[in-house]
Write a structure and sequence with these properties.
Radius of gyration: 23 Å
Strand content: 15-25%
Distance between the termini: 71 Å
Largest sheet: 7 strands, antiparallel
Structural class: alpha+beta
């Protein structure tokens, strides 16, 4: 089949019609996410919601997304374009679904697996539907595919280049078998794959309904109009920032192993309606699994700009036109393809966002929060059962940073994270683990005119004979920072209490094996305070 290169554009779309199509596309992306959450087999997807959905135009530029995980959605702005650079459009057919998880193909880390469906109308490729889901295991050295001692990318799991998994809406069983033979919990992974495929199928059906009503060419013009409007809106948002050069930094706790804190630095240059974010001064790539990709840098930039200056801007390829994101190849922000990156996806990306926020303090202090739980706070439990390995991927909220006008909230998620914790009832029903207790970590928020929010304390007691535990969290050494004279919040931590009563502190990146009766306690960080406390504030805090 010959795929048409372009669509014949009709007349320009009026603003009302554009708003109708924009909301229709967003609704399609939202429905995709709902399908995954309802149909997936793993608790990580159906309970915690660690997945995202997006639609792109025929060139791979984002046109709509669900209300999902910001770091996923920022990356999905690049995935299809990088995919098309390796798989020409002429190879794509109706009924295809392609699978890919390589970080260098518009990605982030191996557990975030993308399924891509090209969408056709009358033989013309006019859109893509993309479902990204975090698989609870993609192979590798440890259950959950987070290996703290990883020194290269292959220790982190199965690397899947762009591969046609579904042709003419029929599964390629040989390719599926190859994938499932290299991951733990193959039946759970298969269920999640089928949920992702179903989500892309629903999106194609909904897009076809729009195309049947208006024509594919009309939709193509709507896509272009969405890009153009978003570009104008982003340019206007940048124009509200005073011209200048602003520098900011934050620090990773370590190099992923035993090294000292690692700097994440950015220089922001505002010139009228354009903004450049230069991460070239970031540290060199490190030996541990906290490196990341240039696509993550782009996601962090887009998140900050939308959060601070353009909350109503439709996420689309047009948003990126006034933004220039610069990274240095070989740095922690643009690591060589063979370096481990699994933790960089949700740890380093948030340091990038904090570095940008810190750079903008001189011109945006009133808009900013103090430092918060900008870490996934990840602990993974891998349990061997009669049915094989089961993997609980559990994230932990912390205290929100305070703002100029209020205290920070307790037990919240901020920045590019948007994953829920798994309910205790589900954990105890599906894993040999008991949630022994959960409570607010009182007093963990930093003091200030407005105080930071408090973190949490959660205890997991093992009821199985053999369990692996993986930690991957930050803010254990470098605390959430205060703003305008406010104090830093308490650091993140975890400890192991053995069945015999002995205790061991757990490092931020570690893999261990534990047994029945052992307990893992997670103590999440508090948020930073905002402003120097006055006497009334100090008295109030003392009373609490």
């Amino acid at each position: 089949m010959t795929v048409a290169k372009t669509l014949i554009p009709p007349a320009a779309i009026d603003p009302v019609s554009l708003e109708v199509i924009r909301n229709a596309l967003t609704a399609i992306a939202e429905e995709m996410s709902m399908v995954v959450m309802r149909a997936a087999r793993s608790p990580l997807l159906r309970e915690a919601g660690d997945h995202s959905s997006a639609l792109t135009d025929s060139a791979g530029f984002l046109v709509a997304q669900g209300a999902d995980v910001p770091v996923h959605l920022g990356v999905l702005s690049f995935t299809v374009r990088e995919f098309l650079a390796r798989v020409p459009a002429e190879r794509l057919m109706p009924g295809d679904v392609w699978i890919v998880n390589l970080p260098e193909v518009g990605g982030n880390h191996l557990p975030d697996v993308k399924l891509i469906r090209p969408v056709f109308r009358d033989g013309v490729l006019y859109a893509f539907a993309v479902s990204l889901a975090h698989w609870a295991d993609v192979g590798g050295a440890m259950p959950g595919s987070y290996f703290a001692d990883a020194r290269d990318a292959w220790a982190e799991g199965l690397r899947i280049p762009p591969t046609r998994l579904v042709a003419d809406d029929a599964m390629d069983e040989e390719k599926l078998a190859l994938i499932l033979a290299n991951v733990r919990g193959p039946q759970e992974r298969k269920g999640d794959i089928l949920a992702q495929i179903s989500a892309t199928m629903v999106a194609a059906r909904r897009l076809d309904e729009l195309a049947a009503k208006h024509g594919a060419a009309w939709i193509g013009t709507a896509f272009a109009s969405i890009h153009d409007r978003a570009e104008r809106q982003m340019a206007e948002a940048i124009g509200a920032i005073p011209n200048g050069v602003y520098a900011g930094e934050d620090w990773m706790d370590d190099d992923g192993h035993d090294g000292p804190p690692v700097p994440i630095r950015v220089t922001v240059t505002i010139r009228d309606a354009t903004a450049t974010f230069d991460f070239s001064a970031c540290a060199d790539a490190v030996s541990g699994p906290i490196n990341t990709t240039k696509f993550i840098a782009g996601a962090a930039v887009f998140y900050v700009m939308k959060a601070l200056y353009g909350p109503d801007i439709q996420p689309s390829g047009g948003c990126y036109r006034p933004l220039d994101v610069v990274t240095r190849q070989g740095s922690i922000a643009d690591a060589p393809y063979d370096r481990p990156v699994v933790g960089g996806n949700h740890e380093t990306c948030q340091r990038m966002a904090d570095a940008i926020f810190n750079a903008l303090i001189p011109v945006a202090a009133a808009k900013l929060s103090a430092g918060g739980p900008t870490t996934a706070g990840l602990v993974i439990f891998g349990s061997r059962t009669d049915l094989g390995w089961s993997t609980l991927y559990e994230v932990h909220p912390g205290g929100e940073g305070a703002r100029i006008d209020r205290h920070g909230m307790a037990s919240s998620r901020v920045h590019l994270a948007n994953v829920m914790n798994t309910p205790a009832e589900v954990i105890e029903a599906e894993y040999p683990i008991i949630v022994a207790y959960q409570k607010i970590r009182r007093g963990s928020g930093g003091a200030g005119r407005h105080k930071g929010g408090d973190g949490i304390v959660r205890g997991y007691k093992m009821s199985g004979d053999e369990t692996t535990v993986t930690t991957m969290f930050e803010r254990a050494v470098v605390p959430p920072y205060g703003l305008a004279g406010g104090e830093a919040g308490a650091v993140f931590g975890a400890r192991l209490v053995r069945a015999d009563g002995s205790e061991t502190a757990l490092r931020g990146k570690q893999n261990i094996r534990i047994g029945k009766g052992d307990l893992v306690e997670v103590t999440s960080c508090g948020g930073g305070g905002y402003g120097i406390p006055d006497e009334a504030t100090e008295s109030s805090l003392a009373a609490e």
